[in-house]
Amino acid sequence: MSIFLLKRLTALLCTLLLWSCGDDAAAPEMPAPEPPTNLQATAINSNTVVLEWTPSVTSFDNILNYLLLIPALEDTIKVSKQTSSFEVRGLSGGTTYMFFLKAQGTNSKLSIADTVEVLLP
Q1: According to DSSP H, which parts of the chain are helical?
Q2: Is 29 helix (H, G, I), strand (E, B) or coil?
Q3: Rounded to whole angstroms, what are the CA distances from 7 to 12, 14, 17, 45, 80?
Q4: pLDDT tens digits for 56-115?
Q5: What backbone phi and psi angles, to 5 degrees, belong to 43?
Q6: 67: Cβ contacts below 8 Å, ≥ 6 apart
Q7: Which site from 3, 64, 76, 79 is most exposed, i.e. has the minimal number of CB atoms within 10 Å?
Q8: How would you class 86 by CB atoms within 10 Å of its CB: exposed for 0-12, middle for 13-18, buried for 19 or more?
Q9: pTM more than 0.85
């Protein structure tokens, strides 16, 4: 076998090995995390609500944080993944508020939201 042919076969083999390690070796994409559940809101007074929930069942290491959306205030608050409650202050009495809570994965994907509505006294 000539050196030229041996070099060509080696180059071809290297190309095939590199090609087969490409897309096939990529890790599968992580799905969005499971949502938190049992979101509950308790009006403490006319301007404060305490929200409590059951954490997402997604692995703790795959959760980045929770996102609390408050449409009436046009606000989104990042909440630590290490907590399962949050106090919202500065609300207006006699107003109904809706809260949406999502889990944000380390891959930046969001779960569907758990929702709750509360009327402040």
Answers
A1: 3-20
A2: coil
A3: 9, 11, 15, 80, 57
A4: 998 888 999 999 999 999 999 999 999 999 999 999 999 999 999 999 999 999 999 999
A5: -75, 120
A6: 76, 77, 78, 79, 101, 102, 103, 104, 110
A7: 3
A8: middle
A9: no
